[in-house]
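Continuing the series of single-chain predictions for the mutant panel. This is the parent chain; the variants come on the following pages.
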Amino acid sequence: MSRRILCQFKSDTGELLGAPIDLPIDIDKLGLEKLIQALISSEKQEDIEDDVPYSFFVEENEISVNLEQVLNQTDKNFEKITEIVYQPQAVFKVRSVTRCSSTIEGHTEAVISVSFSPDGKQLASGSGDTTVRFWDLTTETPLHQCTGHKNWVLCVAWSPDGRKLASADKNSNIIIWDPETGKQIGKTLCQHRQWVTYLCWKPLHLDEECRYLVSSSKDTTIKIWDTIMSTCIRSLSSHTQSVTCVKWGGKNLIYSSSQDRTIKVWRPDDGVMCRNLDGHGHWVNTLALNSDYILRTGAFDPKDTTLIQTNDEISRFELKERALKRYQKLFDVETEKLVSGSDDFTMFLWNPEVDKKNTCRMTGHQQLINDVRFSPDTRLIASASFDKSIKLWDGKTGKFLTTLRGHVQAVYQISFSSDSRLLVSGSADSTLKVWDLKTKKLYMDLPGHADEVYAVDWSPDGQMVASGGKDRVLKLWRY
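Parent structure:
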């Protein structure tokens, strides 16, 4: 007869479900899933969807086979109650892309950035040929070519309502575009003195007009712009070297990383620097917030098909309310976490709302870190490095999980599928690779580019991946 253990189910937001329950220690994941569904439906007095898969954790260790296997990894006292944390996975499933459906020519120099709109229905790219291009995803052909920049377009950013796109160039200019017409909106924003490294819009639930944009620059400053008046309303300057990345968080704080080895936290309303996060021994290259996906997609939830098009006549207020609901659902209990990646080969996990000390130093990469991302469900962190590998870490604790090997040159950019089950990477070896995050193995190798792949993005609706690089073509990948 198998041994038994007293367990208490607890949601990932900390609520206890039912009373402690006596379970056989060899109960498997399927048994736990059936049990949790029965408990939830009896507690809520309603039928729940049977097909919702769940993940289970004991002390942050995921139960992948059965309960006993995880208990062996932890020093569990069998006389005490064991807490099992359950988390529903995404109801909808994103299918892996498996083939290149289009190779679209248009850019005459390298494609430096590609980005899908918040609802996944539109796509923009920025290139070394000084143009921004919008692409028609139905016919998979070029839609608008936007000229206005006089130097390489280094970054593009969609407003979270999908009605505007910002782009910035090596000459330090920022231009706002109308994706419908491909025409410039307002004046060129030109107060930076050196090139712009990153752009980020104020979250939709804080700014229903999508009026405010923040930019970081090699000139050591961060600037906040009013895109309706085409003016700079605040310049934040405490960094002493190039600012590499900037994020506008959902609690209305701005986070910036710099080659001066620090990360700074700012209050945008009065420009006060409220925290200085240090610890890195070299340039800080990249930042990610665990709210990035929710903030990027705003009001658009891939599970909710009632909000199809960005240009539907839906009131700004309603979009803001939807965005707020989505944000609150995730962050009413959870705090906004930040992860930073550096030239010192390390990463730090921060809880900047609470503390200026890092919560975890994440080591293991053998070269500088290019890109870090939180999975949409916030459970995982992925990092891409010049050491040709991608590493996966626990999104709550920063604990190292595994290394994904397969690329034979530097990995430049990574992007999660919206259900957090897959990851796509683009590399200097000219390939894209799709990784299965359940098995932690390579799922699909996608050769096709003729040279280095600088940019990849998985559309928020899960339908396709876009990639661009040195061979000047934009490729679309579907299942």
